[in-house]
Design goal:
Blueprint lengths: L5 H12 L5 H21 L8 H13 L8 H20 L13 H6 L6 E2 L16 E4 L2 E4 L6 E4 L2 E4 L5 E3 L4 E9 L3 E8 L4 E7 L1 E2 L6 E2 L4 E4 L10 E8 L2 E3 L8
Helix pairs in contact: 2-4, 3-4
């Protein structure tokens, strides 16, 4: 019996559920893109666009649909080109390789070799780490199909799901070296610990700790959210040792 891949199953499901586009569908997409471009131009390229995670997923699905069924096929192609340009300029271009969006080739995914800046090797730390919060791991470290783009991707940390607003805690004594916003990470914190390793906490609803703060293990530093490119409330948690992202499960007592 021939095996089918996850990607093949998803593509077959999309074809089964495909409905031809109408001119009204095209007009709606064009108006939405015009509004988003105007908002981005007014607020600056790094502005937080509304509903970015859901919006990115929907626009990506439009790109992967069957050819738009219109008398003028060139109009449908023009819409797809406009969507791709928008995603490249305001979503992907400056954020590729960050956090949960690290595109790789399908060949790399099959080889299962760690991309540059990541490592599968076991790691240890002098500090005793604790989990930043209690919750289900919904996406482990390593290769995957991205939940939004459905393309080959390398996940540089783990995603821990929790209710929005849940407290996020420092995994060990640390100093906050970065506290900011990223198009992919949303609100994020980067902490540096005593023996030089770092931890990252992303997609936060709100940051409590600020750059320069000295923290104790277990101290509340942020609240769970779904900012940046995200499919739901969770914390994207990374462990970085010698400038390489490693599997947090090597050092966390989960």
């Amino acid at each position: 019996m021939k095996k089918t891949s996850y990607r093949s199953e998803k593509q077959r499901e999309k074809r089964k559920n495909f409905k031809p586009w109408t001119c009204w569908d095209v007009l709606a997409v064009q108006l939405l893109l015009c509004a988003l471009l105007a908002l981005a131009a007014y607020s600056g390229e790094k502005a937080e666009l509304p509903w970015k995670g859901a919006l990115t997923g929907w626009l990506t699905e439009v790109l992967e649909q069957e050819p738009i069924d219109l008398p003028d096929e060139s109009q449908g192609l023009a819409v797809k080109e406009a969507i791709q340009t928008f995603l490249n300029q305001y979503i992907y271009e400056e954020t590729e390789g960050m956090g949960g969006f690290y595109p790789v080739s399908e060949e790399q995914m099959e080889e299962k070799e760690a991309p540059e800046g990541t490592s599968f090797r076991p790691v240890t730390t002098e500090a005793a780490l604790t989990a930043p919060l209690s919750g289900k791991i919904t996406s482990p470290f390593g290769y995957r199909l991205h939940p939004i783009t459905e393309k080959a991707d390398f996940h540089r940390g783990i995603d821990i799901a929790a209710t929005e607003g849940t407290a996020v805690h420092a995994s060990a004594d640390a100093v906050v070296v970065e506290a900011g916003w990223s198009d992919i990470y949303g609100n994020y914190l980067l902490l540096e610990h005593s023996d030089g390793f770092q931890t990252m906490y992303a997609h936060c609803q709100r940051l409590i700790a600020q750059e320069g703060d000295v923290l104790r293990r277990g101290e509340r530093i942020a609240l769970v959210g779904s900012t940046g490119v995200s499919t739901g409330p969770h914390v994207h948690f990374e462990v970085i040792v010698e400038d390489q992202s490693c599997d947090p499960l090597w050092v966390l007592p989960l």
